[in-house]
Structure formats: structure tokens, C-alpha cells
Specification:
The chain is mainly alpha-helical. The protein is built from 14 helices and 4 strands.
Amino acid sequence: MADRIWRVAKKELVQLRRDRKFLRMVIFAPIVQMIVFGYVATLDVKEIPIAVYDQCRSVESREIVDKLTSNGYFLLKGYIFNNEQIDKLLDRDIADAVIVIPPDFSKNLQRGKTAHIQMLVNGVNSNSASIAANYAMNIIMNYSEKILAGKIKNAGASGFAQLVSSRDRVWFNPELKSINYMVPGIIALILMVMLVPMTAMSIVREKETGTIDQLNITPLTPLELIIGKIIPFIIIGFIDIALVTFLGLILFGIVMKGSLLLLYFLSVFFIVGSLMLGILISTISDNMTQAFMGSMFVLIPNMMLSGFIFPISSMPQVVQWLTYLIPMRYFLVIIRSIFLKGSGLFELLPETAGLVIFSLMALVLSAIFVVRKNRSV
């Protein structure tokens, strides 16, 4: 059995070595994808363009504007002097937000009253609008706490009154950089994007050239044929992991806290599961176009339902149940935990079990479909 599997794998390796374009794609496509995704797929929002309508024009109003624009979150585009300019700035996307400071802002602060500030946000991009509003709220609250602390100190009540302060401590990603969270996910995405279509179209190509029929008349069992076919692609998967992990560490400064050896070991199950999806697609596809469309049909749900972009906990309950059928869901938890938490095998046993079960089921289904396809022929 092992000898027959090795012969099939050797044949695949020889074909891959002869196909220079394919080899270049295997090496350079993950590099390009990692660079593009790594710089684009970030949830951090910086230098939000804002304008200020300062009706107060006092020392306090200028101070609050300085607080808003001195931390890199907001980029001051300029001052405006009437309400008509607000509509023009937001309609033409010159500014994403406008800060309106009323005329009585300074007087209310000096009298100990609540001083209001209005922030008008462009809500076309709800995510950016929400982040911008939260940034401004935190900055204004910090400014308010400093003013209150100064009033208490001036009143001589520092020995009797004390402000409540909170200190947050973030574990695993102290700087709260989304790139640290996204890059491990991009590695998983690139693996699936490369392996599923590659496997599906490679086998369909053999159908079109007729070489698959020669394999079908040999004593090979469907399981031996499938295992022999996927061995070269497992090697390609390991090469891709090494490439994109190296780029993630070098280009984006990501720190891997866990074991690289553990990552490779657990990646085997994800790679096998992805390849089995490609095998399943190839069994129901008669040409390259069908194989490509079938691959897209598999890749999009994996990207949308795995937690790569949207948290699974925020999805409807029925959709959350469906995510257990998505192999990328398990691997995302594994790779992010290894990178950010330094988790070991014991902590990742549930996700590992999910990947193992999925890979075995996909392997069995692939063998069944291959047998049925051969019988129908």
C-alpha cells in the first residue's frame, strides 16, 4: 500500500516540477497575498479627517481641540464658521466628522456646569463612525476628569474626595493592534485560498487530458489514490506556511509566542481538510471553470463564517451552529492562540479534535465520491 501511494505521489511531484508556471504561482502568490492582505486587512482607524466649528473661541475650546488632534487619531482639516459649511464638508467627504463647540462652552466650565460638545459624524461607514465617536468620547472624558481633579484640588478637598479611576490591562495584545490579530488569520486564509482551488483544478486538468483514466485502471484503491494525490500539496502547504509566517514576522513585526513546531503539526489537519474539499469539488466538476466556481463556493463561507472578519458570537444562533462545519473556524483559533497567547496542545485540544474529525469525514466522503464517479463511468 505504501509503495503504491508513493508512486502516485512521485508522479505528482514530477508533474509539478515540470510545470514552471505552477511552481512560480505556489511561491510568489502567497507572498503577494500576504503583503496585500497584511497592509489592507486592518481594523485600526487613524488620522480621521475632522473640521472644527468653534463658536466659543476661548482658551478652553482651543485646549480641547488640541487634545483631540494631538494623539494621531484625528487629523484637523481646518476650521469652519457657519452651519452651511458642515453639510458641504460631510457631503463631499472632505471631513468624516465635525466638532461643534457652542458659545457658552468656556462659561459653563468656569461655573462648574456641564459643558456640551457636539460631534457630527459621517455614518456611511458605520464601523469608522463608531470608532471615531469612541475615540472622541474617551479623549473628552479624560479632559473632563483632569478639570474635575483640578477643581477638587483647588477647593482643598483632596484629602476628603477622590476620583474613581480605572486601569485597564490587556492580555496577549497589549497595544490592541488589529494587525497582530489579522495576520495569523491571513495565514489561514491564504492556505485555504491556495490549496482548495489548486487541488480541485489540478485533478480536473487530469480529467481533461485523460491521465486520470490511466490511474483508474490500476490496482489503486480510491483511498490510496487520494492520499498519493494530496502528499505533494501537503508539502506545498508547509512551504506556504513557512513563507507567509516569515513575512508576517519580518514585515509586520508580529511576535509568535507559541511553538512553531506545534503550528506545523496542527496545520497538517487543516491542510488535509482543505485538500479534501478540493478533492470533493473535483469529483463533481467536469472542467476547470466548474472547479473554479466550486472552489469559490467553498472559500466564501469559510472566510465569512470562520470568525476571520466577523465575530462568531455576534452571528445568529443558527449561523453559529453552521460554523462548526467550517474547518477554518477551528484553525483560526489554533493559529491565533499560538501566535498571541503561546497556547500549547492541551489548550487547543477541542479545536484540534474538530479539525481531525472534519479531515477524516472529508477523506471518507472523497473516497466514496471517487468510487461512485468511477462506477458511473
